[in-house]
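User: I'll paste a sequence; please echo it back and then give the predicted structure.

Assistant: Echoing your sequence first, then the prediction.
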Amino acid sequence: MENEIQSHRVSTSDDIEVSTYLEIAKELHGEQPAFEPKILSPSEKETIIVIDFGSQYSMLIARRIRECHVYCEIMPHDTPWEKIAPLNPRGFVLSGGPGSVYEPEAPLAPPYVYESHLPVMGICYGMQVICSQSGGQVSPGEKHEYGHAILHISNEDCPLFAKLTSPLHVWMSHGDQIIELPPTFKSLAYTENSPNAVIGNDKGIFGLQFHPEVAHTPQGKNILENFVYQICGCQGNWTPSKFMAENIEKIRKQVGKGKVICALSGGVDSAVTATLVHRAIGNRLTCFFINNGLLRREEPERVLNTFQQNFKMDIVYVDASKRFLKQLRKVVNPEVKRRLIGKEFIKVFEEGAAKLGKFDFLAQGTLYPDVIESTTSETKATAKIKSHHNVGGLPSKMKFTLIEPLRHLFKDEVRKIGAALGLPEDMTWRQPFPGPGLAIRIIGEVTEEKLEVLRAADWIVMHEIKTAKLYHQLWQSFAILTDVKSVGVMGDYRTYGYLIAVRAINSNDAMTADWSRLPYDLLARISSRIVNEVPKVNRVVYDITSKPPATIEWE
């Protein structure tokens, strides 16, 4: 039966009763744990809060600050102080945004940002917010400023510019400008078109018209580092592993004596999530690996084999492929696909859990980029890019309480934790694979025929990429089955076949990405093999679009 749960049990360890993460680390790594297990005391915690006004770069700000070993979280501009206070903030960064501060109902910084007397740095729109709220004036600029600019420092004693030499190459993206500085503020740097490119006062409040968080501002990370260390007084005592040590304790307290069900996909996100939950509550965790019929060739077998060899936890395999394909019949809208897949996942979980007993919690490997692109209550000002099946695709009513220990982490941070936890390398460094699977790599309706065509083409892409020893150098590489058919000639006969697109990109966090300049000979081999080995395909194209303006996946 298509809905039948097929159980492949792996030996289950006894329920873990440990009081400190040190014992967990020793269990994994012996007397020399791979990473520092200490949990920071409340007085040692230090956080930089990014007040988000809808910038797509807010995630980059958080990344750059975390790279300084200082914890950072993004909060909507209307977040109450009661939610921020427990994080022990040491300073605020006001993000950029698409609006203008002089527009009606423009989002502004909450009063506590200034009343806290903590250091503040506004970036682009955030700078204009500071100006407007402090008594200055912002208006549309006579000239817009987009792209590279040369920044001249006029006050080299400013701690923001410590160890930096003027001029600096910076990245601008604005149409408004400050025409009147607020009282007590001074201009600290300028560009050709922005006489007030950097402003500040003696109370530790600064504004930058350019974007220090992007790669196009080469010394931008140094400026952010100066802000968090020189101005906010941070010590740099945060690492992802310390964050996760705290989360293990949080999971234990949240779950209590309850039971948790977890979705395993074969990727590092779900594997790390399952490992952390298992270390917190032991055999009160049951993992499900669901075959939704949208996986790549031989993937179900390989994933099950990996889990059975490397994990001492309950794992249940569910073949629900037919019911997922039934739900997707005649569906062409990508957002509808994502929502249907998300809802069906929850149904499978609920049905599976009901057969095995009562489960209270659902653990997911949700990451920070999933949250920001799906636009949840955490990111109200940000435009929705697409619904991730595990965020925007979830039904509003579920029988489970969610546990998402990776919700505020980036992919590279999760990989570091996976490596420290001793997960197998082929899992820790596996290229990301979308939760909706091949459904969003098939443009248009998903059918059995199209799935087989795409699986065959994707297998060739991956084989050639790995043979060329480029797999770990790329963020992602895969094939897409487009909804285009084209005329071809094969064996002196006219053909009308599918068009396969190949996508290979480089990225650090999936928030931005650039297409990979694969060798021509490699592209030629991929194309030749696909048209010769995959029935009904007669044309291959290579996607040379970066993100933005495109997304990594096609749907």
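Residues 1-37, 376-394 have pLDDT under 50 and may be disordered. The CA atoms of residues 298 and 322 lie 17 Å apart.
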